Amino acid sequence: MSRAVLVAGLALSLASCGGDPAETSREAAGDQPGLAILAEYGGPDGGYDYLSVDSDARRLFAAREFGVMAVDLDTGKVTDRLIEANDVSAVLPIAGTNEMLSTVYGDNQAVLFDRSTGDEIARIAVGEKPDAAAYDPDSGLAFVMNAGGNSISLIDVADRAPVGTIAVGGKPEAGVIDGKGHLFVNIEDTAEIAVIDIAARKVARRLALPGCVEPTGIAYDALSGILISACHNGVAKLIDAGSGADKGTVQVGQNADGAIFDPNTRLAYVPAKEGTLTLFRLAETGAAGAPTSVPTRYGARTAALDPATGRVYLSTVDFTRGTGDEDVATPGTFRILELGTK
Predict the structure, then answer these.
(1) Angle subtended at Cα 308 by Cα 306 and Cα 314, rounded to the nearest 5 degrees
(2) Given phi > 0 = left and psi -120 to 50 = alpha, else beta, which region is 243?
(3) Phi, then psi, of 35 in degrees rounded to 5
(4) How far apart are CA 51 and CA 327, in angstroms?
(5) Are 104 and 125 in contact (CB under 8 A)?
(6) Burial 68-82 (b: 16+ CB within 10 A, else e)
(7) The pairing of beta strand 48-54 with beta strand 202-208
(8) Strand partners, 224
(9) pLDDT number for residue 324
(10) Nearest alpha carbon to residue 224 among 192, 255, 248
(11) What pLDDT is attached to residue 265?
(12) What is the rounded distance in angstroms from the CA atom of residue 166 to the CA atom of residue 196?
């Protein structure tokens, strides 16, 4: 996951979506929830990255510089160190099991553990600087995006073993499975999406992301076949997963670092480091409705959605400006924000 910075702007480029703007608006418009910060959960100092929610267990997981942190969403109880590891990036629940896979950026490993107890199951060597991860239940494979190795490591989760590597020709960021045998991965430095044929274990083709700089978060709508790629230059690109056609551009916050799509509400969520969460609704055709910007906190660049409650969770800390215009975290200020409707 990008370790990045700042600023804003919110409008939809209807012309780039194609068709009549009024028709696009009628087709995709819909009321959006009025989200606000409802609660905050504190935690130890240290860096942060991805989050995930186990709706059934009512538990939130946060990747931290020192390991994995967990929050009981019913009681608010925080487990500072569910596991310890050297700079965790991904917190990926393995569907159909009680296991979680986390990438250990600092040690070039992936770790499998019981997400209820934190008991470690296996540590598996992967490529350089492992970051995002995705899981395909059909093949039983987990995919680890190696930010420093320009590759994807494949792990057979049942066997707890590495089973291959796919070179992707650039820095892989987040990836998403379509349930049809493909993994779509943003390639940050080439501004494209690599389409992975899971059965063949290779890059099948590449989809261009015109007007996108440094794509990071990615989401997929199975109904319309639209991919949503969040870009650092304040846009989210809508791309047809089948044809690769450019289906539009939505203005979001600067340095967006995540993307979520909820098929039940048809809402997309794009968090940005500048301190905004952009929401927009997709019509069944894939046309995007007008976006809404919700204020969060500066630094809240990744997010997780609990689809059972509609609540959104983001990690951040307070920052001050250091030498060389670098952000410096203020000790004692880490927290996870919980956004929902009042």
Answers:
(1) 15
(2) alpha
(3) -75, 145
(4) 21
(5) no
(6) bbbbebeeeebeeeb
(7) unpaired
(8) none
(9) 66
(10) 248
(11) 96
(12) 9
Task: Indicate the SS3 state at residue 24.
Answer: helix
Q: Under a CB-based contact definition with an 8 Å cutoff, are residues 291 and 11 in contact? A: yes
Report d(CA 315, CA 297) in Å as an integer.
Answer: 9
**Mean pLDDT confidence for 62-87:** 98
Range in 22-36, 60-74, 205-219 with the lowest mean pLDDT: 22-36
The H or E element spanning position 88 is none
β-partners of residue 304 are 313
CA-CA distance, 35 to 269, in Å (whole number)?
Answer: 11
Q: Which two tokens stand for residue 106?
A: 């600092």
Q: What is the identity of the amino acid at 222?
A: A
How far is the C-alpha of 64 from the C-alpha of 6, rounded, in Å? 21
User: Confidence band (pLDDT; 50, 70, 90) for 176?
Assistant: very high
Instruction: Write out the two tokens for 186.
Output: 């943003």
Task: Return the closest-CA partner of residue 102 out of 114, 112, 87.
Answer: 112
Q: State the pLDDT confidence band at 342, using cuts at 50, 70 and 90.
A: confident
HSE on the CB side for 112, CA within 13 Å?
A: 24
pLDDT band at 2 (very low <50, low <70, confident <90, very high): very low
Q: How many helices (H) and strands (E) would you count in the chain?
A: 2, 31
Average predicted confidence (pLDDT) for the chain: 91
Residue 16, pLDDT above cutoff 60: no
Q: Which two tokens stand for residue 188?
A: 């940050």
Tokens of 274: 């500048």
> For residues 161 and 139, what is the distance between their CA atoms, to the nearest angstrom?
14
Which tokens hold the place of 62? 């946060």
Q: How many residues does the chain have?
A: 342
Global pTM value: 0.90
Residue 312, token pair as written in the block:
């959104």
| pLDDT, tens digit, 9 for 90 and up, residues 93-127 | 999 999 999 999 999 999 999 999 999 999 999 99
The domains found in the chain, sorted by start residue, are 12-341 (2.130.10.10)
User: pLDDT band for position 23 (50/70/90)?
Assistant: very low
